[in-house]
Specification:
Number of domains: 2
Strand order of the largest sheet: 3-4-5-6-7-9-8
Helix content: 40-55%
Number of helices: 10
CATH architecture of the largest domain: 3-Layer(aba) Sandwich
Shape: globular
Radius of gyration: 22 Å
Order of helices and strands: HHHHEEHHEHHEEEHEHEE
Strand content: 15-25%
CATH class of the largest domain: Alpha Beta
CATH topology of the largest domain: Aminopeptidase
Largest sheet: 7 strands, mixed
Structural class: alpha+beta
Distance between the termini: 51 Å
């Protein structure tokens, strides 16, 4: 580690003073609300990816465990956050926003969008693009926020990304041909055209603003949900994203009334199979066949919800 340049330190401190004043975080309550900056950040993390534990939240935000515990207790007392048992680990509790919590966050999110919109709205399109590029450079130089990810609903363009990533990943790692990419494209297209938001859902995992994972829950029949297209990019493995995606999928399926979740996979996908076993899935059947240009062992797994 090199010795810090005094002028660089002074300029960073000056920028921090300027920027915190610009975005209003020096006020006791943020955005003229009843919440502190830290409370708003906690609500944001829970709204973007419900189902994390207090320990995971503390690690993500770099908060002292005792301070975070008091903050969460206050949000619970106000009826904004509740705890519920984790589907993956009965010893742990997930943190979930209540309906009131979601309403409160929606207001804060809208106010923040309006405030930042007014700030950058004085810049033309080239100026806004330059601002974003400079911010990305700062994040890259200072190390970004490694390990900080969110689960969110898909946006326009995400489904094309899902198809592309599956096609390239499985061709590179397993030598599968275009038949597999065609299968993924068919699943995604059917979801886009026909999915019922009451009984089917997709999550995109995003790390530092970049998609790195996905999973789908689709209807198999009235009693059975199907888990499909679980994927975590190699750059984001080891952060627990795959486990989170499965847990979110199971919680959603259970909440909308499914009794069982099934999935189809392949014996070659060893890492995925470990995640399924850890989540309580059991192997029902397997079949040797020729698929995607290779001999395969197809497997059907299931677990009660």
């Amino acid at each position: 580690m090199s010795e810090p340049n005094r002028e660089a330190v002074a300029q960073v401190r000056a920028f921090n003073r300027f920027y915190t004043r610009q975005i209003g975080v020096l006020e006791e309550r943020l955005l003229d609300s009843a919440f502190t900056l830290t409370e708003v950040r906690v609500l944001f993390e829970l709204a973007e990816g419900q189902g994390i534990t207090a320990a995971q939240l503390g690690q993500r935000l770099g908060l002292n465990a005792g301070y975070l515990s008091r903050l969460l207790s206050g949000l619970q007392t106000r009826g904004l956050v509740r705890r519920e048992p984790s589907a993956m680990d009965g010893r742990a509790n997930r943190l979930v926003l209540t309906d009131d919590g979601r309403t409160a966050f929606a207001r804060l999110d809208a106010a923040s969008t309006e405030s930042i919109g007014a700030l950058v709205g004085t810049l033309g399109e080239p100026g806004q693009q330059r601002l974003v590029e400079c911010m990305e450079q700062i994040r890259a130089l200072l190390g970004g926020s490694a390990g900080s990810y969110v689960l969110r609903d898909p946006r326009p363009g995400d489904m094309g990304w899902v198809i592309h990533k599956h096609g390239t990943l499985y061709a590179r790692e397993f030598g599968w041909n275009a038949e597999f990419e065609a299968l993924v494209a068919d699943i995604v297209t059917r979801y886009l055209r026909e999915h019922d938001p009451q009984t089917e859902r997709c999550w995109i995992a995003e790390l530092d603003g970049t998609p790195v994972g996905s999973v789908f829950v689709v209807r198999h029949d009235a009693q059975n949900a199907k888990l499909r297209l679980l994927h975590v990019d190699a750059s984001a493995r080891g952060l627990g994203i795959g486990q989170r995606l499965i847990e979110e999928a199971m919680s959603f399926a259970r909440a909308v009334g499914y009794k069982r979740m099934v999935l189809w996979t392949n014996a070659a996908l060893v890492d995925a199979r470990r995640l399924y076993e850890r989540a309580g899935f059991e192997l029902l059947t397997e079949q040797h066949e020729q698929l995607f240009g290779k001999p395969q062992v197809s497997q059907l797994w299931a677990r009660a919800l």
